[in-house]
Amino acid sequence: MPDQQSTAYQADKVDYLTQITRLFGGYKRRAIEFMNLQPGVSILDAGCGTGDDLIAIGKQLGPAVQLTGVELLPELVTEARKRAEAAGVPVTFHEGDLYQLPLETDTIDRARTDRVFQHLEQPAEALAELIRVTKPGGWVVVAEVDWGTLVLDHPMVELTDKIAAFYRDRQPNGRAGRGLYRLFKKSPLTQVEVYADAVCITDWTIARFIWGIDAMLNKVASAGLISPEDSAQWLQRGQESASAGTFCGSMTGFIVRGQVAKA
Fold first, then answer.
1. What whole-number distance in Å separates Cα of residue 14 and Cα of residue 171?
2. pLDDT value at position 13?
3. Residues 6+ apart with CB under 8 A from 54
4. What domains lie within the chain, and their CATH numbers?
5. What pLDDT does residue 216 have?
6. Average pLDDT, consecutive stretches of 10 residues, N- to C-terminus, the chain (263 residues)
7. Which of 98, 150, 184, 197 is most exposed, with minimal Cβ within 10 Å?
8. CA 1, CA 218: separation in Å to the nearest integer?
9. Does the predicted model carry a pTM greater than 0.85?
10. Which residues are CB-neighbours of 2 under 8 A, at least 6 positions away?
11. How wide is the angle at C-alpha 214 spanned by C-alphas 1 and 119, nearest 5°?
């Protein structure tokens, strides 16, 4: 059965987001590059989590940029403010909803969100809200993983596929990544571009943490799709692959940008 360490880790949103930032660095750098940043621009990170991306941007561009973060979870807003203050980077954080951003229309030069759309049942409405707050000529960038691309090289192939499919389908928008380009093309945005990057993890313990594998097993078992014995055996076989140094898993992230029509 899942060990207490993995369960506790996955429950700690702050530590989880910190690990994501470290492991998905290349993907996140491309997402920031897609924003076409320049000194003096105003930047919104909607669903900013602990604010790490905004802090990194602030360190890169200096005090000339205006940084704003919006986050739904109050505990993450609190942590984000602590981190920004400790880093000496001025950021304005708001507790708020992506469907109703606490910002005026046409006030932001660059609006972005990362790994938020997978949780949204109405992604088109969220994109429309990002467009609303972005100035004419500004850019909107959305980065998102696609749970349908999760691949685990595990010896129990059929059970692995069942676990991955169940978790993908339990997300409100588990295939969000692949649909971003279509979503942008159907919006008023112009100059739409898409980029995809597969992130590989060869550390079994880290994979369990980052992809919430223990939570997957718990949910699949609770739904009666696998037995506790299957769950325990699956973890054991995964650990054997790890001990042999042969485990590998990957997931693809998509980054799409579009420009708000110039006035």
1. 20
2. 55
3. 43, 45, 48, 67, 69, 80, 84, 89, 91
4. 4-259 (3.40.50.150)
5. 85
6. 39 58 73 90 97 93 94 96 98 97 98 96 98 98 96 95 89 95 98 93 88 88 90 94 96 96 87
7. 197
8. 9
9. yes
10. 214, 215, 217, 218, 231, 235
11. 155
Note the pLDDT of residue 15. 64
Closest CA to 212 of 72, 75, 28, 16: 16
Nearest residue to 11 (alpha-carbon basis) of 244, 212, 254:
212
Q: Own/partner pairs for 189-192, CB < 8 Å, 24+ apart?
A: 189/131, 189/140, 189/258, 189/259, 189/260, 189/261, 190/258, 190/259, 190/260, 190/261, 191/257, 191/258, 191/259, 192/256, 192/257, 192/258
Q: What angle is formed at CA 251 by the lines to CA 250 and CA 255, rounded to 5 degrees? A: 140
Q: Which two tokens stand for residue 212?
A: 């919430």
